[in-house]
Amino acid sequence: MVNGMEGYIVSLIIFTAILAVFGLGLNLQWGFTGLINFGHVAFMTLGAYTTALLSSIDIPWLPLPLQILGAVILGATLAAALGLLIGFSTLRLREDYLAIVTIGVSEIVRLIALNEEWLTRGSFGIQRYPLPLGQFSPNLPTRLGMIAILLLVIGIAYCRLWQWMGQQLQPISRSQLVTSLVPIVGYLVSLAVLIVGIGLGARSLKAAANLPSWVLGLGLLSAIVGTSLLYAWLAKRFLLPLAARTTALSLVWVSILSLLGGWLTTIAAIALYHYDRSPTKNGLMWIAVLLVALIYQALQALVRSPWGRILKAIREDEFVARALGKNVFWYKLQAFMLGGFIAGIAGALYAWQLTVVYPDNFQPLLTFNAWTIVVLGGAGNNLGTILGAAIFWAYQSVTRFILSDIIPLDDARLGAFRVMMIGLLLMVLMVWRPQGILGNKEELTLGR
Q1: Is the pLDDT of residue 346 over 90?
Q2: Are residues 108 and 151 in the same domain?
Q3: Which range marks the domain in which residue 179 is found?
């Protein structure tokens, strides 16, 4: 049973990473630049089909890894070229024209994939194309190195999230320090729950994982000591000078994320340790997580640069940016193309995860999912987009099994009900926190 759960968690991580990359492209276009793109799936379609088609061509003189890499780069480049074509003809018009054109282009691309059988094989789809790391058989030191990189990436993500949480907490007066007894107790309880949760998880996975005792013990000790130090730093830095209610809620939030993330990370590390069980999926999980980290860091550097500040200025009021001598059209075009390039990379990951590419895999619902992720996490916040992808796919995965037992509906109607529930949750979110979970209400002024 644990083996099945391990495979399911690996697929869960891969799909979350795909949606995160896909959402990051849309967040650059809309969250940072204010470009309304309702046909974002068109870029993913080009990336997926180009990667699958070019990877399946037999080129004897070119090593397969380089061929796959070249296919991904060319697919993302074609997606960027589509962004150039769309943007060059519409970005000088009003935003609603861009939205209408992108919807039409996404359907045109999907219908071309469906009807041009000489190129895309039509409704039969593209099958049996090579996958990255499909024939890779790493030794133990290589596997441990891959696990170390995975843990490093996830650790950096947690640090970023904790930094954001620290910025949200507000100081109080000395007279209110007595009320900090409540969050102190909450801190100790949450830390105890974390330690117990890690211990129980390691115990339940030990038999199926067949890990050496020293590996399991070292991992358990590192998780407890590392998280305890982070919790202690959080308590020293934020706990005592802060209001009881705010700090207690923040610690509960961190505890939940730590428990969930630690469990998923443990299973992902075990999957990489036992690479030979499912080499394609385990390797793809490692590639997907690494790509999310690289794209996130690159986008963070870009949006904090002068180029990114100009994009934000265009989003807020493009007439002011134009009055300052900036070529607004050129910056919009760059952002639109780069967002398409990133979505093309997401398309390659999507093709590898599905192992077969059909036109029906690229319905407009994917664009709706990307918008949901960006709005949920917070437009104009890349970390929020990644968090939104994790929450969204967790909702999709959980409701797929729970709702069927609660609501007596067939599969088609149940799927429609799940989409309706997403819309309802977004409405509640817009009332409660219109800027999204990690969004900045003062900075984000879209629609004013």
Answers
A1: yes
A2: no
A3: 143-275
